[in-house]
Specification:
It is a single chain. This protein is an alpha+beta fold and 798 residues long. It folds into six domains: 67 residues, Phenylalanyl-tRNA Synthetase, Chain B, domain 1 (2-Layer Sandwich); 107 residues, Beta Barrel (OB fold (Dihydrolipoamide Acetyltransferase, E2P)); 202 residues, Phenylalanyl-trna Synthetase, Chain B, domain 3 (Phenylalanyl-tRNA Synthetase, Chain B, domain 3, 3-Layer(bba) Sandwich); 66 residues, Phenylalanyl-tRNA Synthetase, Chain B, domain 1; 199 residues, BirA Bifunctional Protein, domain 2 (2-Layer Sandwich), CATH 3.30.930; 89 residues, Alpha-Beta Plaits (2-Layer Sandwich). The chain has 19 helices and 40 strands. α4 packs across α5, α10 crosses α11 and α18 packs across α19. The N and C termini lie far apart (71 Å).
């Protein structure tokens, strides 16, 4: 999250500390500050100037030639901006200035008149709203030559924080200020919210219905009319730009401003576009679509939560508004929404539609269900301040089941035992009070009430211990070496097996990846598994780190696909990697762990001195798994039919080893590839390492004493005759002398008939006791060909 130091100072006094000191304090308490930068960078050569004279340009009627005092001298500026008059104070960028929009100022000749500087508008400051024309920034009476940054609210520092997923309360300036206030032992200054209410009651103007209270436990709204939609104040634009949000209009900007300030998303509807003046919170209908504010047409699914009016959808709940009800410059009446949406629902919808917004980032982590009224009132207050108008009396508050706060008990003796040091009880009480837990000391314990903005994060006594420890300071807790016996390695450890597989696959040129065993349940849902499939019913974690890590994986595939997606996002298109890890299943007597391996390849293979490179394909992955099986078991894989829903139906196979099912191999289904936004075909294989290891009896086989002879065999076979069937038949027809069969070519297309393919095999004949003559080989090979055509509906190409 991005915000400015002056903004933070409005909630907790911190101007006496350097930005670096504040960043260090927050980082050591668990709120990482990734960067600190000066907001006015490049504005050192931008100063105030007073226009002394204005003349017309002798060649260009639209331009004016201005003589401007900049304190220690005068400059001549040619500009086409309107409203340039003698005596007005402007901002002047002197030569060498680097402006926020990327312009570097220098002296130039404009049709015979020298322009020695630039006048600064919001365009140069990269603050312009949509459709803005270049208008110079005019200031009140200020002496010429003053530094510009303090006057345009840019003499400030920008802080970039990276809250962990379990701390949505720190996705607002208020939440960060709360942390800092406790760390500095200073009071938290919450904004004073007050505004007049007049006219009819809101409940007379709009009806709100919640059809799915599980997905939307609370929905609040206020009505404002008579405001004038227009540009926002410069100070608001500067803060929004610093937060990475572009200015749009004063009404919309206020909702975004409060989002950053208080951490709660809001949305404003044009009241006149709401049909029936009604809000319905419901799931989307089958086949329903919505054009969102970004102009994209969204195809909605029936489980996606929608904000609708009496007839149609008007917003994707918690994610983005609809274009059919957006606030425009002509809008005169608005309805402001402040609601709470169930995090999992928002996260699933955002992921399926490929949308990530500032609102969805907050809702999918868990918003403050009790803080949304404050956010709504703050938004109303600011809209009245910057846009005028009047607010109707009261607000709509649809709240079927009010929040019941959770109460916990922290033992002070237990706190000391957990941390291995003595924390003064008054310090523990002060810390928890500052964080909003309202502690009450009672018989060596602290009874606390978990604030709603920490309801998803603090659920047990140990969570309270963590809160005290991180604020008290881990550096104040003495370091001790852990004591206890070292556990012996378990008998029958699988570590040697894992290391062997890692060595083989790494030697084949694949890169190893390591993913968490905890995964997002939606990643399993995306595979399209049948509900009776054990892989579709994962083990659920009681205390997950986040919703995205709430179940144990039943397959390695989601982790590999996610890794490939991350690589593609950073323009790494060519990849081949593997993973070795455990998968987890529910069993009759508890849980079961199994050891799996998996391979993924997509893009192009790297070029070498003898190969210009080619695309990864099914046969590359098959070859990797075959080589692994050959080295570990000395056995050849066979393939069977496969109907895995996440694989391409015509490019997938079941892996069999000595008749036992080993795993699967194939191309990722196009539906799944689109979901992960892959730019090329993706091939995967997953297999059981326990089956692959099996009972491996080491058998010595001497090198052959006599040479072998090869013969090629080409045939045309229908698709119904599998490679495995051809292989098995040939082995039956020439036992003893036929030592190896390799498929060396596969072709489909003209002149081969449709529904058939051409296969070419290389057959190796060899005897153990003599060198075979050509006559012997021809006799055996001829008999094999003849019998093969009798047994199978193939045509041998001679």
């Amino acid at each position: 999250m991005l915000f400015t130091l002056n903004w933070l100072d409005e909630f907790v006094d911190c101007k006496d500390l350097s930005p670096e000191e504040i960043a260090h304090r927050l980082t050591m308490a668990g709120l990482e500050v990734e960067g600190v930068s000066y907001l006015g960078e490049g504005l050192e050569r931008v100063v105030t100037g007073r226009i002394l004279a204005v003349q017309d340009h002798h060649q260009e009627r639209r331009w004016k030639v201005c003589r401007i005092s900049v304190g220690n001298g005068e400059v001549q500026v040619v500009s086409g901006a309107p409203y340039l008059e003698e005596g007005r104070t402007v901002l002047v960028a002197l030569p060498g200035a680097r402006l926020p929009n990327g312009v570097v100022v220098e002296t130039v000749d404009l049709k015979g008149v020298e322009s020695q500087a630039n006048l600064v508008s919001e365009i140069e400051l990269d603050l312009a709203e949509e459709g803005d024309v270049e208008t110079v920034i005019f200031l009140d009476e200020v002496e010429p030559g003053q530094e510009a940054a303090p006057l345009i609210h840019m003499d400030d520092y920008l802080l970039e924080t990276s809250p962990t997923p379990n701390r949505p309360d720190c996705l607002g300036v208020l939440g960060v200020a709360r942390e800092l206030a406790v760390l500095l032992n200073r009071p938290l200054k919450e904004p004073h919210i007050s505004f007049p209410e007049e006219g009819p009651s809101v409940e007379e103007l709009v009806v709100v219905e919640i059809w799915d209270p599980d997905l939307c436990p609370r929905y609040c709204a206020r009505y404002v009319e008579g405001m004038k939609v227009g540009p926002s104040p410069l100070s608001m634009k500067v803060r929004l730009k610093a937060a990475g949000i572009r200015a749009i209009s004063n009404v919309v900007d206020v909702t975004n401003y409060v989002l950053v300030e208080l951490g709660h998303p809001l949305h404003a509807f044009d009241y006149d576009d709401l049909r029936g003046h009604k809000i319905v919170v419901r799931k989307a209908k089958e086949g329903e679509i919505l054009v969102t504010l970004d102009g994209n047409v969204r195809d909605l699914e029936p489980d996606m939560l929608l904000i609708a009016d009496a007839e149609r959808g008007v917003a994707l709940a918690g994610i983005m508004g609809g274009a059919n009800s957006e606030v425009r410059r002509r809008s005169e009446r608005i309805l402001i929404e402040s609601a709470f949406f169930e995090p999992t629902s928002i996260r699933r919808t955002a992921k399926r539609l490929g949308i990530s917004t500032e609102a969805s980032k907050r809702f999918e982590r868990g918003a403050d269900i009790e803080g949304l009224v404050r956010a709504l009132d703050r938004t109303t207050q600011l809209i009245l301040e910057v846009a005028g108008g009047k607010a109707a009396r009261g607000m709509v508050d649809a709240y079927p089941q009010p929040y019941q706060p959770k109460r916990l008990i922290l033992s002070l003796d237990g706190l000391d035992n957990f941390l291995g040091t003595s924390v003064p009880p008054e310090d523990a009480e002060r810390i928890l009070d500052g964080l909003g837990f309202s502690p009450r000391k009672k018989m060596g314990q602290l009874e606390v009430t978990v604030p709603p903005y920490r309801a998803f994060d603090v659920t047990r006594e140990i969570d309270l211990v963590e809160e005290v420890a991180r604020v008290y300071g881990y550096h104040n807790i003495p370091s001790t070496m852990p004591a206890g016996p070292l556990p012996k390695e378990r008998v029958g450890s699988q570590r040697p097996l894992i290391m062997e597989v890692q060595a083989i696959l790494s030697g084949l040129g694949l890169v190893e990846v390591i993913n968490y065993s905890f995964i997002d349940p939606t990643s399993l849902e995306g595979l399209g598994l049948d509900s009776q499939d054990p892989r579709a019913n994962p083990v659920t974690i009681i205390n997950p780190l986040s919703e995205e890590m709430s179940v144990m994986r039943t397959t390695l595939l989601p982790g590999l696909l996610a890794t490939a997606q991350v690589n593609e996002k950073v323009q790494v298109k060519d990849m081949a990697f593997f993973e070795v890890g455990r998968v987890f299943f529910k069993g009759d007597n508890g849980f079961q762990e199994r050891l799996h391996g998996a391979v993924l390849a997509m893009g192009r293979r790297g070029a070498s001195w003898d190969d210009r490179g080619r695309d990864y394909d099914f046969f590359y992955v098959k070859g990797v798994v075959e080589e692994l099986a050959r080295r570990m078991r000395g056995r050849t894989l066979t393939l069977g039919s496969c109907d895995e829903p996440f694989l391409h139906p015509g490019r997938a196979a079941r892996l069999l080893l000595d008749g036992e099912e080993l795993g699967y191999i194939g191309e990722v289904h196009p539906r799944l590839a689109r979901q992960y936004r892959f730019s090329s075909r993706c091939y995967v294989a997953e297999f059981s390492l326990e089956v692959l290891a099996g009972d491996r009896d080491v058998v010595f086989e001497p090198l052959p004493r006599f040479p072998g002879t090869t013969r090629d065999l080409s045939m045309i076979a229908p698709y119904s005759i599998t490679h495995a069937k051809i292989l098995t038949t040939m082995e039956e027809l020439a036992p003893g002398l036929l030592r190896e069969i390799r498929l060396i070519d596969l072709y489909t297309g003209p002149p081969i008939e449709e529904g058939k393919r051409s296969l070419t095999y290389s057959l190796l004949y060899r005897a153990d006791d003599r060198t075979l003559t050509d006559e012997e080989v021809e006799e055996v090979h001829g008999r094999l060909v003849e019998e093969l055509e009798k047994r199978l509906p193939i045509t041998v190409r001679r």
